[in-house]
Amino acid sequence: MFPPSLAISRGIHDNLFRDFRDFLPTRRTLTSAFNELRGVVNSTERAVRGRDEVFCGNFLFEDPDMQTAVTKKRFNVFEYYRMAEAGILSDSVRTELINGEIIEMSPMGARHAGAVSRINELLVPLLKGKAQLRPQLPLRLNIYDEPLPDFCFVRPRRDFYSSKHPGSAETLLAIEVSDTSLSYDRDVKCGVYASSRVQIGRAHV
To answer: In which order are the strands placed within the sheet that holds 47-48?
Structure first.
């Protein structure tokens, strides 16, 4: 829905067409398109012009000379947590922040859970006293990346990181168990870990 200030009422169709003729033919010939457009003008509900496109009824004319770049809004970790505190993010849905985008994580299936249990039984005794285990807990890599790896082995701290989430400097190894998320973990998340110089292990089940 366009803003009210840009709405064109049905009572000024003739002015609308004069505006189109003044605005667009300097860039391309649209005589035949206008003739066709006139046949459906009675169904026109809104129009906007003067930016990067003109929309009228069932027709959309793009002006290549006036196109603008589209940018995404990236959220940082502080905005991310404020949204959680405000209730915008539900406590019942697990999310992680990747490249400034809030990613909803898939429910864990039985195969995924079984692999996590096996890895836990294998690695925890080996690293006891050498590292602390953080299963599926936040790892703050930078202000735009806070993934939740299935396992994260970090340098031991007496407070068990109760004052802050560990970062890349404290991380010895992160492990992602991939089932339905294989391509995303491989193509996106591994790059995020690598850019922060975090050693990553992947287990595909």
So the answer is: 47-48, 53-56, 59-62
